[in-house]
Amino acid sequence: MKTTETVRRHTAERVRDTLERLVTERDVWVSTAHPDRGPHQVPLWFSWDGRAVWMCTGAASVTARNVREEPRVRLSLPDTFDVVLLQGEAECFSDQDVPEDAAEAFTAKFGWDPRAEEGSFLYVRVVPRTVRAWRGEPELRGRVVMRDGMWLE
C-alpha cells in the first residue's frame, strides 16, 4: 500500500482548514452515551454558524435521548486521513423553540425544514471546547487546534 507524503501544517493553517471544512462539509459523526445504555454513534447533517455545530434528529431518537441525559458529545468529520474531532456539550432545542436563524441556516443548506414535518424534531447545538485536527502521522504532534473553547494560533 502506497501512502501519501504529508507536509506538516502550522497550527494557524490547521485552524483555517478546519473552519473551511466546518462550513463546506455536510455530514458529521455524532458520538453520545447514555449512563445506563452505553455509547451510540450516528451520522447527521450539520451546519456551522461560525461558533457552533447545529444538527437535527428525531425527538425520540437514541441521539436525542442520550444528549438529554448526558450532554457531553464528540463529533468527527468523515475523513480518516484529514481528521477533525470536536468535543463539547450539547444544548437541545425543540423544533418549536429553535432560534430562527439556526433553523433557517439548516434549511438553506439542506433544502429541508424539519419544522415543517409531521413528527417532532430536536435541534442540537454543540459549541466545541476542544478541537483536534491532523493529516497523517506527521501531524499527530500538535493536533489540538482549540483548547477551552479558544482557537490556537
From TrEMBL:
InterPro entries: F420H2_bilvrd_red/Heme_oxyg, Pyridox_Oxase_N, Split_barrel_FMN-bd. One of its GO terms (molecular function) is oxidoreductase activity, acting on the CH-CH group of donors. Pfam families: PNPOx_N. It comes from the Bacteria. Residues 25-134 form the Pyridoxamine 5'-phosphate oxidase N-terminal domain. GO terms for cellular component: cytosol. The keyword Coiled coil does not apply. Keywords: Oxidoreductase. This is Pyridoxamine 5'-phosphate oxidase.
